[in-house]
Model the fold of this input.
Amino acid sequence: MVRREQDRHTFYAGKPQPSADSPGTFKTINPSTAEPVCTIHTSSPRAIDAAVQSAQSAFPSWSATPPVERARVLQRAVALLRQRNDELARVETLDTGKPFSETSAVDIVTGADVLEYFANLVAGGGLNGEAFRLRPSAMVYTTKEPLGVCAGIGAWNYPIQIALWKSAPCLAAGNCMVYKPSEYTPMHAQYLASIYREAGLPEGVFNVVYGAGEVGGQLTAHPAIAKVSFTGQVSTGKKVAGAAAGGMKYVTMELGGKSPVIVLPDADVDQAADGALLANFYSTGQVCTNGTRVFVPRHMKQNFEKAVLSKIQHVRAGDLFDAATNFGPLSSKPHYDKVVSYVRRGIEQDKATLLCGGVSQPSGLPSGLKNGYWIEPTVFTDCTDDMTIVKEEIFGPVMSILYYDAVDEAVRRANATELGLAAGVFGKDINECHRVISQLEAGITWINTWGESPAEMAVGGWKSSGVGVENGRRGLEAWVRNKSTLVEMGGEVPTVFSKL
Ligand code: NAD
Done:
């Protein structure tokens, strides 16, 4: 199954560009086995500059290409992504440690859907401006202009999906992109760059640089970058947004969360428990919108815990390419260490009640996987708002159950955080569900479901969880700037200075 992956080099001017000035190499690791998969050559400052220049050279022609023609190129890339779904899913599985059952059904599919959505949107007039008569002799028209060369900086949890969610509206709007994948999961980037080329994207429109925070910092600070679209931790996002502000650059910030799930008193216990499991263990809990604080009415305690314990038996760790596996390892050793330290802290310092799980490996793992970064799906119950595991983003398979007595109390406690990425409610009375949702301080919310994020739906965090949105019609607006033109047809300019 494991095929030798070619080394990765900075990709610009339409191809990988090996160079002697790379400051070094690093390896991506298969998190299920801890074995190396691919060698990456860090982009040097010169290579970063060359990638930006390549994008600058491509911009005049790409931005002048009619939207419908740009859309045709992007649609061809959509077809290639779908044709190669399983090959790309295999790469994502090796890089992230997510089961193939998940990457083959979701990661490439949701990326391709977004590319198709934005191609259709711009072909269908999504970039049209407006025109109105100001007075009989004058009118105003507006145009949506691309920004120029934009940077995309990705997190490691949804590598190709993030690359597509950023590049799709960026390129559809007529911009060019220099993209930096996470240093932990960079393999997809060359596949995507090659697919874009094969689809007919002119060279220089999509480029890739490799490396960790330093490379991201150089890219952000590059004077020719007009916008930075960033996905990652709140702490990094603050640095990136600060650096971008210094150059008065546009930003989109998709950051972390500590999202609440509120189970209402009339909720179906089974449905709510299913939702809580999905919100905590899908992708081994490494989803930004994870619903990690599960607020449950006190009277439901026994039934809810029973349902969780029963359903958690169906979380299956194992060989990532086995169709029955639906739970993978943590994505890297540093991340494993971080999640394990949070679980230990939950047990030892927070003194939370461990309902199930802990820091050991899931039982029954094949011997070839023993060196991987596995932990069990973990549930703490009877948690309180002041516990570290309840306050901080863990980004792993760790659920905290908190009991409440009154719905308004649950809402108040759910909102008592600086983060505001996602939130959800489960309940039978739909009016009450809407009432509660309207009070929750979060940019992405669900009622009686969790996690679905279709291309048509704009998503973005409130408070410290982000700035701006991705996807939906609003997602395209994030990649254009407005030009307003006032046309006077009366034949005279105002005569303020010509008459004394
Ligand atoms: P991270 O902040 O550590 O890294 C994200 C990216 O930023 C990486 O490519 C990294 O190399 C780069 N980077 C690091 N320092 C930088 C700097 N100074 N300047 C520029 N770039 C820099 O985040 P991560 O650990 O890769 O990702 C996990 C986080 O991402 C979680 O907090 C998760 O909630 C968040 N996330 C958010 C969304 C969303 O849509 N809101 C989606 C996925 C992940």
In short: Residues 100-123 form the longest helix (24 residues). The pocket of nicotinamide-adenine-dinucleotide is lined by residues 153-158, 180, 182-183, 212-213, 216-217, 220, 231-233, 236, 239-240, 254-257, 288, 393, 395, 421, 461, 466 (CB under 6 Å). The chain has a mean pLDDT of 97. The CA atoms of residues 2 and 290 lie 30 Å apart.
